[in-house]
Structures are given as C-alpha cells and as structure tokens.
Amino acid sequence: MAAAAAADKDNDSLQLPLRNWMDMETKKKTTLSHKESIVRKTTIAYGILELILRCFKTTTTGNNSMPSFKNNEDDDVIHIDNFTVLVSTNSSQHQPSWDDITGVTMNSPKLSLTIEEPAYLTCLFEPDETHGQLGRCLEVEHHDPTSSVVHEEENSSVLPMNAEAITADDLTNDNNERMRVNNRCYYLVAKVLYELFANEAFPEESSLATVNEAATTTIASTDVATVSSEEPAQKKLKSSSSSNHHRKLPPPAATKGDFNEAKQLPFQIPSIVRMQQQLGIPASLCRMMQNLLEAALSRGDDEDDENTSLNDAYKSLRDVAEDLHLLLLDPDRFLFDNEVQQQGTTNDETTTIIQLRYRKDKLYGRDKEETLITDAFCRVSRGKSEAFFIGGFSGCGKSMLVNSLRARVNVVGGYVIQHKFDAVSQERSLSGVISAVNQLCVMLKRRNRNSPPRLAKLAKKIRDEFGADVALLARILQNVSMLSPEFISPVAVEEEAGGDTMNARSVGFTLLRFLRLVSSRKHPVMLFLDDLQWADDTALDVVHTFLSDAKGSCMFFVGTYRDNEVDANHPIFDLMKKLEISHVPTSKVSLAGLDHENLNTMISDALCLCPRICNSLSDIVIKKTDGSPFFVLEFMKSLKDRGLLQYNFHQKRWVWDEDTIRAEGITDNVMHLLSYEMNGLCDEIQLLLKVMACFGTCTNESVIGYLSESVEYSGVRDGLERAVIGGFVEKNREGDFKFVHDKVREAAYNLIPESDKKEFHYNLGKALHSISEEKDVGDTILLIASQIYHGKESIMKNDELRIPIVKLNMAAGMKAMESCRHKTAFSYLKAAWSLLPDDCWGSYYDISLRLNFMMASAANSSCEYDDAVLILQRIMKEARCTKDKLPSYFLLSQIFQAQGKVADAYGTCASILTRLGETVPESVTPETVGAMIPETLRMYDQVYGDDWLATKMEDNTLRNVLKFYVAMATSAFFFKVQHIAAYLSCKVVQLSLQNGVCQHTPLALMQLADIISFDGNNVAISHRIANNAMALSKKFNISDQNAELQLIFFHAVGHLECFHSGIQRLRGCFESALSSGNANMGFLCVQQLILFSIISGGKELTSLLKEIDYYLHLLQTYKSEMTRRFLLNSRETVSMLIDKGEATSIEAQECPGAGADTEPGNVILNMFYFHRAFQNYWLGFSERCCHFAQKCAVAFPKPGRLYGTQVRFYHGLNLLDMLKKKTNASRRKEVDEVIALMKIAASHADSNFRNKLELLEAEKYGLDARHSQAVRLYDAAIASAKNSRFIHEQGLACEKAGFYYKKIRDVRNAFDYFQQARACYEEWGSRVKVEFIRRELDGLNIHYQLTL
After folding, report:
1. Which among 311, 577, 825, 1150 could bridge 817 via Cys, Cβ 3.0 to 4.6 Å?
2. CA distance 624 to 637
3. Cβ-count burial 1059-1087 (b if 16+ within 10 Å, e if not)
4. Residue 342 · residue 49 · CB < 8 Å
C-alpha cells in the first residue's frame, strides 16, 4: 500500500494510511495531551466499526445473507492496513487538533464515510463554552459508490440472517458457520483496536509469557488497600485467571475448526488486558477489547449464559459501535478512568473514595413529557397564557421535568418564579404565590442592574400604573423597593379604621396588575408551584385570576402534585375546571416510574459503564424501586454504603454481585433506606436534620444563625456543612437551605420519636424566642410562634407563659397582616385566642378585645365572612362600652355591604347611630328633604372657606357619627329612594360645617353635590361643591375613598367634564378599588366608564364588548348581582349596536330589568330604561324609543344629570323624525323644550353638548325648509362632533345631512354625506348602521342611474 498521502480536494482533508498515521502520532512531538490523543484514536475506531458494519451489509448475497468473503478475505478486510484516515487540512501537521479526524476509508472493498458534528450543536454553545471539552456528538455519512443499500442498524448479530424458510439441517449448518464467522470477526476487530491504541502488533501466545510473569509480580505487590478483599464474587471471578480465557482461536491461515479446543489458543485475555493497562490505555477500552475476545470464545448457546465470565461479551458489532459512540459523547465519564474524587480517613488510615457520578441535572425517560411542556411554553411565548399540570408519586421526577425548561425560558428572556408548598409550613395559602412574585422583583433588578435607564423606565411604568396604590403594591411585594427607593410599604395596618380593607382577591388583583407590566411575549413569566396537594383554594384562585386575565399578562403556570395523595374534591381539580370554563389552554400529564431502558441509562451514567454492562443490575433495581428516579438513586447509594456495590481499583470500574444483592433482601421502601442511612450519621448532622425538618422543606439561613448562638443547638452550623457534603441538604438561589427531596425531610423528621415531636418543636421555639426576643427578627417571628405552639399543653398548665405566648402569636399575626398574608395571620390569631383562659374577657379584657378585632379583620380579608361575623357578634356581646364596639359595628356593616346585604348594612349603621344618641328616622318625606337642601347650601356658602378648612373635628365620637352616616348614605343611594340618601348627606354636611372637617367630610360633600345635581338649576353649584370635595380629599390623603369619590363625581357632574379623560380616571379608580379591597365600588366605577364609553363613542364597539366581557368574567369571582345587571344592560346595548345581537349576544338570560324593584329611584331599573331608549333610537324604532324616553323622564325628572340630558337629546331627534313623517305634529313644543335644555347644557359643557344642540337645530331648520341655516348647522354639528371625538355622533350628523339632501333631491351631496357617515360608523364598529347606510347609498346609485 502506498505510503504517500493524498489530498482530498472535495472535503479539504488529507488522506493518510492508518498505519502511517499511527507512526506519525508516535514519532512526532505534538502539543496534544494523552487524553486528546485517545479521543482521536477512538474517533477512528468508531469510523472503522461503522465501515465494517457497512461492509457486511453491502457484501451479503444469497438467501442466507452470508458474507461473500472467501477463505481468508475477512482477515484482509478487518485489518489495520485496510483503512485510511482523513485529517482536516485546517489543522497543521505540526499542530494537530483532538477533533481534526474528518473521516475513515476502507480500501477493499472501497467504502468511505465522513465523521462530523451535527450542525445544530454549534448554536447551543457560545464560542468560549466549548474550550476544554473533549466530548463529541458524532454522525457518520457513508459514501458507497457500489451500493444503494440504505444503512440500517444490526441489533442482534454481526451477520443478520434472512427470514426466509430453510430446512432444519441447513439452519444448523448455517448457524455453525454463522457463529464461526462472527467469532472470527470479533477476534479481528479486537486485534485492529489493540494495534490502533497500542501502536504495536497484537501479541500472540509466544510473546505473553514474560508479560504474565511481570503482571503477576505487579499484582502481588499491589497495595492491599486499593483492591478490596471483600470484592463481590462475580467480579472477582472475572478478574482472576480462568481456563475459559485461554481458549485459542485458529491462526489466520486456518479455515474451519472447533474454537473450544485449548491447543488452538493463540492469546490469553488477562495478559492482553494487562499489556494494554501498562501502555496507559483507559480501562474502558481495555474492557472493550476484553469483551470482544470473550465474544470470540462464545458458543452462542446456554453454556455462555451459565459462564459468568462471558456475561459482558459482545453480542454484536453494532453494540461495539454504540459503545464507541458513547465513549466519544462523554469521554470524561465513559472513556477515561475515574479520577480520585475524595479522600476519607478511617482508623487513622487514609482511604480513597470514589463516588457514584450521578447526572443531577439530566432528565431520564421523559422525552414525550419534555416535548409537551416545551411546546406549551412556546405557545405562551406567543402571547397566550397557559397552564400545565404534572401529577405523579413522590420522587418520580416532576420537579426535574419542570426544571428542564428553565434554560429555554431564560434564553427567550423570560423569568422563572417558584414556590414549594409543604405539609409542615402554614404558608399554604396566598403567601406562597406572593413569595414567588416577590422573587420576580429581584430578577428584574438583576437583569437591569447594568442599565439604569431601563430600570428607571420600569419604575416609571409601575408609578404610572399604580399611582397612589404603589404603597399597596409595596406592602404586598417588599422587594419592589429594589426597583425604586420611593416604593415603600406603609408602616402598619390601622386597626381603628375598621380593619384591613385588603383581602385575598384584592391582593391577587394587585399582583395581576404588576404582572401585566413586567410580563410580555418577549418576557413571559413561568410560575412554578410545587406540591399543590398542600395548597388551598385561596392560592389556586389567584392562579386562576392570573391565567384568565384578558388584559395582556403573559404567564405559563406549571403546577405539580402527588396524584396518589389527592382526591377528586381537592381544589386542584376545581382550578382545572375553572380554567376550562375560562377557555385557558390547559395540559395535564402524569408521570410513572422509568422503564428498563431509561433506568439502565441512569445507572450506566452513575457507574460510568456502558449500558449493556449494567442491564442485569438494572433488572434488580427496577423490581425494587418501580422505576422511581429518586428511589433508584437512594437504592444505589445504599448498595454502595453496604459494600454490595464497590469500586475495583484494579479493574477501574464498579463491580457487584447480583446473587448477593437479590439474597440481601434490601427494603423496597425508600423511607427505610433513608432512615437506615440517617441513623448512622453523627449527632451534629442528625440534630441539624431534625431542626430543619421541623421548619419544612426550606430553612432560612438566619434561623440557623440564631440557633447556633444557643448552647443546646450550637452544633447545627457544623452539622449543616456536613449535611450539605452528605447530599441531604443544598443551598437554594435565595441563599437558604433546603432538603434535596421531600422524602429526605420526611425521613429526617422521623428521626424524632413520635412521642417526642411536640416537645422537640416546643424546645426549638423557646430557644429561638430566648435568643431573638429583643431583636427585630422579621418573618422569623412566625416560625418561632408556630414552633412554640406545639407545646400548647405545657403552656396551658403554666399561667405565667400564657400571656407572653398569646402576645407572641398576636405579633406574628400582625406581621403576616402587614404583608397581606391574611389567612396565615388568621391561623396565628386563632392560636392566640385558644391560649387565653375561659374568663379572658374579665381577666384580660384589653387583649381579648384587640385580639378578637384582629381575628375578625383577618377573617374578613381571607373572605371567611361567616367567621368574621361570629367574632364581631362576640365582641358586641362582650365589649364593655359602645366606644369599644364602634370598630366592630363598622366592620360588620362593611362585610354586609361586600356581601350585597345592603339592608343589613343600613340597619347596622342605624343601630349604632341610635346608641350614639342620634335620631335616625325610619322614613323621610320629600318635603323634609326639599327644605334641608336649601338650608344646607346656605350654611355651606356662609361657612366654607380657608378658616373652616383649617378647623379639624376634634370630637372622636362625632367623627364616628359621620362615618356611620356616610356609610348609611352610600347604602341608601343605591337601594333606597333618593330622598333618604339626600337627607343623610345633608345631615353629615351640616354636622361637618358646624364642627369642622375630618376624613369623612369630602365624601359627604360629594354626596351632597350628587343630590343637588338632580335639579338642573343647580348644576354650577353642584360642580363647585364636587370640585371642592375632591380638593379636600387630597388634603386627607384618603386613597381608600378615591373610587367612591370619583364615582359620585362623575355620576353628579361627569357630563360637565371631558368624557374621554373621565373614562381613563374611572378605569384607574376601578383598578385602585379592587387593589384596596373595595370591589363593589370598583365595579360601580366600571359601570360608569362603560356608559361613558357608549355615550361618547370613545371605544370601538367590538373592543368595548370584549372589555365588558372581561368585567363580567371578573364578576364570576366577585359575585355582585347589582353590577352584573348593570353590565348586562350595557352589553346588550353594545351587542345590538354591532349587529342587533345576531353574532355577539350571549346566551339567553333573564331580562336585566326583570324582577327589579319598581320603586321610584331604583337605579338598576332607571338604567334599564335608559339603555332601551338609547338602543331603540339607533336601531330606528321610533315608537319604542318614545316609550322608554317617557320612562326615563320619570326616572330623571330634572335635566341636570347626564342620563336625563342624553336621553332627551335622542328623544328630541326622534320627535323630529316623527314630525317629518307628519305624525304627532302636536309634539313640536317638546322639541323646542329639548333644544332649550341643550342650550343650557352646552353653556355648562360646550365640548360635550355643542354638536348635539347644532344637530337638533339643523334638523328643525331642515323641517322648516330653512335651507341655509340647516346646511350651516349640519356642517357645524359634524365639525363639533369631530373635535369632541364623538365618532358615532359625527356619523349621525352626516347621516342626517344626507337625508336632508336626499329630501331636497341633491343626490350628489346626499351621496357624499352618506359616504362620510358610513366611514364614521365603520370606525365606530356598528355593522347595523354601516349596512343601513349601504342600502341608502345603493338606492341613491339606482336613482342616479335612472335619472341619467
């Protein structure tokens, strides 16, 4: 064979005969390390095996698929000189690279292949990430000019048999021949590999005597400590001399023969392996050649199965190729020998310890599930929120599956936030979700730390969105202060204000507003809640709020749970149902144990052995563990600790004895394994594990610090370090310490005897309390209180301990309330109440009163209304005086108001006002109110000024009187006749004018402004009082009243303000109200802003319909029947305007006005009449419009209110249309009255009513045939509507102008105005009006053509 090298121009590779390449490698001094050289040779070996397999595939002929080799051609084919190496020319001959082998060629028969890295791998690493890595994920591409046979894997043997039927004798003969050829091939492949790696001729028997003698001497002198005397029996047998290893293969010249004859043995396997070891060839390659030679001795019958020394013999050359590929894929694990990983000391002697090399971050056997969760996240990154639930038993790999997605989330710019619920911690409710979102603030800070402008932009977005509510956000998310120093939480919750107004729903909505700002398609948020079986419905309801949001949040929720520990009634399944109803895409998978193949791969990785070698061990493990990944790890660790799995330093591999493992009877319960292991640990580690187990799955580092200061727990710090080394505990991203798995925590907790657990908790809490008593320990106070409470029996027996522990639990409850963890607070406060004696109202009155009110407030904020009412009733029964009962009465009235029990709320306020000496009339006549309003206005004009504004109401009792009067007026405003609300408002304003201002005065003034606005003659006065009330509210900084103030302001004088700015203010009030816990008032703001949107045409109708549906969706949670009726009225109107409800109406429901109270002044019924009048005008139903307009005239008798003015405008246009048809000519006077009213309205708010006045006058002049005035006013109405951005009324003016020109037969102008009208209606989104105008245009076209 020519020695000269040839250049392959096609692939820029240099061709070198393999033997020449080997000589060059040996002779030249290269910069490659020994490891790099081994990788190069292994790459060539992989190519050789692939070519040999290809050769067998392409040279088979005949029915029996036997090779076409004759005589000794196989010796020539599988020979070191039959191969050529392709080396990249990009690598200099003087500076070769470990990865420059690009292909291998077989000379005869002519076959070649290229070896390359898949292109997709290059995009997975940054340029500097691959430095120092020797692993190669290779693919081979065959170049076979003589055959078009597609390459296939041979799984069972070197030479595949044809499946056609043959005779029994032929089958026997063929099998014998097949075995002879197979064994010969194994031998030849082993020979080629030996020569490739050793770069010397394969040793025949005559050359082995000296080696055997030297090897025996070496083994005899080996340090006993490095070769275990207790090595498992099976592997001892493999490492010793055996007659089976001395069987000879025939020399190359031989043809057929019995391979089992000892006289024909030309090699000794142990001697050859020792020679390879002496040459520095890695043990993995030594094993490969040993197994090839063992395969050459195989008979292929049952005798091989009984011969344990041949258990690892190869069954096919495909297995060899796969092993070589694995060695290249991860050489540090599989190719190179294990390095010494740890030194241990036993009896003053140093021993070498080799650890099992688990792939901690690799996910085994979950390819399908990994694809599903990845696909789900990809859909989320397109802008749609989605949920993914993972069920499975403990230890099946649920968390690993979720964590496999982290890298992808980070790559696309997303955020992963998480919380793990556990059985011990009381943080099972909303606290867990708050904790997860709080992490997001830290991530936002880190990601933007190098870009102050970007961080400032984010802070501005938060400031603009939340406004004054940013304090509420900071109270919930303490880490939000990291984004801007101005985002500071309020100091404490004011109990005397009537309790905490925030609740679980308001907290969830506030978090949602924050998530809308920071999440997007470019930055999706993945919320991972682990162990949902311990979560409650409060947390899961907030998750539903996040996912069902239609306003732009982009979230991927992943929840894991143990499906064998939950029943069908668990809140998890309620959440799934709610998500389905809300049309949130939801996926669910359930994980079982690993199958044999994937479990075997897992064990293979841990032992650094090829999978085929581990199969028998995996059979045992899977039967013991049912394939639970965590159990598998613990089981393998147990085998190692018991000496049933040992590392053989001579063989450089792990060895085991399967029979001994089976006979050992190791438990099939992972808890028993962990307990067995932990019982053998030192006292410091056991103490640490017990302590951490008492706190749950995770323990704050500060807790460890506090405990280490005590004498009893001084060893926990040292125990922590050892527990981390031992693999029981690890440090998380926040710097705290957690158990590596739930089962580890359970086993650690079981270290404490059941009878001692309460006392252990109690002593632990007392130690923490004594150390931290004078310190500000933050949230640690919750842990201290919960630990001490385990000793309730001891506390109850010691009167001196009771009150301090009660106060401790009250402090813990208040701490939880401060950060809106209301349910957690409720549990601590209930614990405090349970510790008080039966006569506590007598012996500890102040504590009992304060504690009960805190409990009621926490219960209310947790939406536990029944519990809150019972506690408040207890206060009213036990409190000693009316003053002590006032906060409870007010909170009770607010609870009734929130539940829609307005009559109860009204009665509660009336009851306490009577106790305070006020006379509250059961009924009020309109005449009484008619006298009170002028009197109140006179007092207001006389008193209002800087002096009065500077006078504060000092009488606390009087302030309480005003508070209850204002609450009564609010209830009466919506559900009583208007004159009762008017009486109460006047009463409050008069008291305030007489005694000075307080925080309740602004709302009272606003209610007064609303009352007097009913009279159209007092519009200016009403507007002035309303503006003064808003200014006064800013002085007191009463953000909790802002929504109610804005609502009444726009209800009273909103028609005097710009509609469009009012919509934005009302929308902000809605979000503020929901965040502060005043949902009822928030949804009333919604109704007002929707009406403003309808009246002003301020939003495209389809978008407006979606917004209404969003609010209706929220009402499924908030359950406000009054608001639902309001919104259904509005929705029906919008739907009718779009397409008469043909495609946009919701399913048939009760009529929004049906069943409503017909008492005059009923707000719901009045708004029903308004909507009907509005709808029927736009749809062209004149008679119906007149009917409902008359109803509205009764509902809004005075023209000073928005709805009365608006409905009169449409009524006036409707009357003019009827007059055009010569019907009801007597009603012309009504038209004049409407025009007069509109002039007054325009004088107060020109931008809102000028276009309406001009259109009415244009229609009137058109009716009277006053052409010039009509034309001028039509154009003026169009221009005014356009300036005010009333797109629908601009279209209406164009439509009316078109009809006017059509009437006077000016077809061209009529056509132009109708086209303008159509454009306006298209922009508005009213398909009904667009179709109506289209018909008119078609008619004009026909008329025009007929005229021509």
Report:
1. 825
2. 14
3. bbebbebbbbbbbbbbbbbbbbbbbbbbb
4. no
User: In terms of residues, how long is the chain?
Assistant: 1348
CA–CA separation, 287 and 654 (whole Å): 12
Neighbours of 801 (CB within 10 A): 16
| Tokens, residue 935 | 């009197």
Band (64; pLDDT cuts 50, 70, 90)? very low
pLDDT at position 306 over 60: no
Please state, in angstroms and rounded to a whole number, the distance separating the CA atoms of residues 766 and 760: 10
Distances (CA, A) of 764 to 753, 771, 820: 15, 11, 27
Taking a C-beta distance cutoff of 8 angstroms, is the pair 96, 32 a contact? yes
Chain mean position to CA 984: 49
CA angle 106, 55, 65 (to 5 degrees): 160
The DSSP bridge pattern shows strands 415-420 and 525-530 to be parallel
Average of pLDDT values for 823-852? 94
Whose tokens are 């802008």? That residue is: 383
Residues 6+ apart with CB under 8 A from 421: 427, 428, 432, 529, 530, 531, 532, 533, 534, 535, 539
Q: Using N-to-C axis directions, what is the helix angle for 1202-1220 and 1163-1179, rounded to 10°?
A: 30
pLDDT in tens, 593-647: 999 999 999 999 999 999 999 999 999 999 888 899 999 998 998 899 888 999 9
Q: Which residues contact 36 (CB under 8 A, 6 or more apart)?
A: 98, 134
Q: Pick from 926, 1008, 923: which is nearest to 962 by CA?
A: 1008
Question: What does DSSP say about strands 13-17 and 555-561: parallel, antiparallel, or unpaired?
Answer: unpaired
**pLDDT for the residue 489:** 66
The two tokens of residue 359 are: 């792939």
Phi, psi of 1155 (to 5 degrees): 75, 0
**Could you tell me which of 818, 802, 817 has the C-alpha nearest to residue 856?**
817
Q: What is the pLDDT of residue 818?
A: 87
Sign of the alpha-carbon dihedral angle for 1215, 1220, 1224, 1225: positive
Confidence band of 1077 (pLDDT split at 50, 70, 90): confident
CA dihedral 63, 66, 71, 76 (to 10 degrees): 140
Phi/psi at 388 (5° precision): -140, 115
CB under 8 Å to 648, separation ≥6 — which residues?
227, 228, 231, 235, 239, 654, 655
Burial classification of residue 610, based on how many CB atoms lie within 10 Å of its CB (0-12 exposed, 13-18 middle, 19 or more buried)? buried
Other CB atoms closer than 10 Å to residue 1034's CB: what's the count?
12
Q: How many CA atoms lie within 13 A of 1055 on its CB side?
A: 28
For residues 11 and 418, which has the higher predicted lDDT (pLDDT)?
A: 418
Return the closest-CA partner of residue 226 out of 54, 127, 353.
353
- Backbone phi, psi, residue 1167, to 5°: -70, -30
Task: Return the higher-pLDDT residue of 1213 and 2.
Answer: 1213
**Residue in 763, 650, 773, 639 with CA at minimum distance from that of residue 711:** 763
Whether 402 shows a pLDDT value over 90: the answer reads: yes
DSSP-assigned letters across all residues of 1014-1083: TSGGGHHHHHHHHHHHHHHHHHHT-GGGHHHHHHHHHHHHGGGS-HHHHHHHHHHHHHHHHHHT-HHHHH
Give which of 985, 990, 1024, 1002 is closest to 949, Cα–Cα.
Answer: 1002
User: What's the confidence (pLDDT) of residue 925?
Assistant: 86
CA-based nearest residue to 248, from 232, 229, 268, 233: 268
Strand partners, 589: 390
Q: Tell me the C-alpha distance between 1281 and 535, whole Å.
A: 55
